[in-house]
Amino acid sequence: MSQIRTRIAPSPTGDPHVGTAYIALFNRCFAHSNDGKFILRIEDTDQTRSSEVSENNILESLRWLGLSWDEGPGKEGEHGPYRQSERTNIYSEHIDILLKKKKAFRCFCTPERLDQLRKDQLKNKTQVGYDGHCLNISEEEVSARIKQGDNFVIRMKIPDTGDCVFSDLLRGEVSINWSQIDMQVLMKSDGMPTYHFANVVDDHLMAISHVIRGEEWINSVPKHLLLYQYFGWEPPIFCHMPLLRNPDKSKLSKRKNPTSIKYYESMGYLPEALVNYLGMMGWTMPSGEEKFSVQEMADRFDINRVSLGGPIFDLGKLNWLNGKYIREEMSDDEFVDKYTKWAFPKNNLTNLIPLVRERVDKFSDVMELVSFFLTGDVGLTEESFHNNKLDKDDILRIFQFSLWRLEGINEWNQDSIQNELQCLSKQLDIKLREFLSPLFIAVTGKPVSISVIESMAILGIDVSRVRIRNAIKMLGGISKKMGKTLLAEYRKLT
Ligand code: GLU
Q1: Shortest-distance atom of ligand 1 to CA 220
Q2: Nearby residues of 248 by Cβ (< 8 Å), 6 or more positions away
Q3: What whole-number percentage of the chain has pLDDT above 70?
């Protein structure tokens, strides 16, 4: 058999997610247990959502976890470039092949028509999807409309009837009726490929033998297989891993659990413990041992031992494992070394000191001001909010609305946080100072310290979010009913 080549293909559109590391770990172990190669490809064709900051964070976090790649950004190989935005000419060449073979067609439908179509389909309770309006436009008309400058996208043709039957390495035979599959857009009107198209072209050109990814992609397999067939390529083997779940079994989400790898780094988890914990998601070592390294996992890896029951990402269990590493894998000297590196990294201090020096007279004043950066729980009690001018319901409203508002921030920094919170305080008609005061206590645990906006900017979105959520809990939480009322109120704000 030819070489085993696996990949992860993250889109750089946000914080580096623990789910990405989990899939990376299993791909890497599978490849390395078979003398294969593990590839990292950046899927950044969505130009409005992708960012360099996010890409760098993903690369840094994977490196931090010890999940290095054999080919990818910074590690060029013969199948590069490994960033989709640098491969656009490849996609144009390949879309031409499909157009020539008449496996794809230009669609001139306006967004308004598609919107109306969708609304009608929802109203009539019929299958939602493209209705083939442009499927049979004559070539003359196509040329004329292109000449006239009409916008178009390129869609793939889909069989009218029958089932797509394929085999998944973990799930066996899967069958999906073609009527459920939309005539997928392959190329957008700006000439950029969609995920489905670029992903298949790249997996083929990068000689990927096994596509191991999250189960949310399983319904995309028919489209992908059809593309392989249209091009006349041999498809890879597909393997869809179970999704990570919150303790309540819902899909792991940042609203309930911190999902950013950066959060775990900033809370002082050890990378070897976190990656070990991710290895326990759906996998057990044949020996039953719970503590193992990436190398040990790769040495004994057998994909067939992955279990499909949704693995629960449970902070309590992670804390237990991390504690075990701290006690069993580190001498006191190493502890001192690692702790000081974690607590006083030069970058953080460089950011903090300009804020702190205004407020101190001697070094021994510093710790009191900055301790909340180095702690998980800021020690809130109900009394923490007693002196606040606002009543409990107003404070809860500020917390919940701020959480929703902060979620929308793409680039987390002082200006963006300031803008969002200032705008929210205006909409709620509360003076900014008063509005920020409960947030201040939630984030820093203190009545006076560095400004809350500067603090949140340095702490990062995940830590800030966890602190606000803890403060909500401390005040008795938000019931389902109250949550609904708040959401309705929030939606009315403009
Ligand atoms: N870019 C996709 C993602 O962000 C990749 C999915 C796949 O592995 O095919 O998850």
Answers
A1: 9
A2: 256
A3: 100
